[in-house]
Specification:
By secondary structure, the protein is an alpha+beta fold. The protein has one domain (45-193, 208-339): Jelly Rolls (Sandwich), CATH 2.60.120.10. It has six helices and 22 strands. It has a six-stranded antiparallel beta sheet. Strands 2-3-10-5-8-12 form a six-stranded antiparallel beta sheet. Strands 7-6-9-4-11 form a five-stranded antiparallel beta sheet, with no helix packed on it. A hairpin with a 2-residue loop joins β6 and β7 (131-135). The longest helix has 12 residues, at 48-59. The protein is globular, with a radius of gyration of 23 Å.
Length: 341
Amino acid sequence: MSEQTSATRSDAEIAAGWKRVNVNPLWESRAAHKNSDEGPERSCYWGWQDMQPAIEQALAMTSVEAIERRVLSLISPFSPQVAGTAGTTLNLNAGLQILKPGETARPHRHSMSALRFVLQGEGAITAVDGKECPMEEFDLVTTPGWCWHAHIHRGSEPIIWLDVLDASLHRYFGTDRFEPGPSNNIPDVAADASFAQAGIVPENAGTQRNHSPMFRYPYAQAAAAMASAPEGKDGSRRIRYTNPLDGGPVMMALDCYLSELDAGCETRAFRTTANAVCSVVAGEGSTRVGYETIHWGPRDVFSLPRGNWIAHKASSKAQLFVCTDRDVLRRLDLLTEEWDG
């Protein structure tokens, strides 16, 4: 007997046939040709005072030799899961890392890039591919993907810094990889003094890698740069931490900025397809993210998810450190930004 033609088969028989050859009709997908019905992701806020009990409890936990890194991950209940894990906001994973005096977090490396923004304490160093980077309050230290890094605390009080990683991006692409120490095959790294003069770099910078050859950006230098920064179109002053070789972001997937607002300044609202994690360096104020308002003070952390109208208002002179996936989206031609009014 000849096989039934498509015209005489039932819908159930047709569906079963498609399933056998691993196809689905696109027109039955609710996600096809539609925008998300859920709207933008909501912001999440981690107040410094709220974090103190958790930090104290983490300090009482076992040594870093047993747990690799003493990190409290900042997980937003509003962030979509990527590979079964939620982050701080889409594409960005943040946490508070804590080191006791005398402790060493042993060397390792991974495909994910990470930054360390010091919130409290001093006296520690991060060794990145063998280069020792001192860690003082509000310094930015980078550990680009596949760079060996270890943390060593030589100070007298605990040190706490904000970690931000592009881990969710790597999990989405299936490229997350990890290698424990000891360090090996460490590349030659140029001294930071090689990049001390703005606009002038050595012909042979000692690196052909796609990240900044500088791993430490001291806050004192950032503050000096801010002092001469012009006012932007949103009413704030903003500087960007850059790769001195090409003027691009410090790391390919993590783009970092420092914003300053005068007392009483309210920025012009903007909306972007990029996501960001924000930490307060100084001052007090508030931020509108969509229909919600976050009231913040020094060392607070909050997320700035894509698709929301965002505006900052300072009740005293304030500075905000911002890490974003903005440059990833720009290179993929997926970055859209607009200003209100």
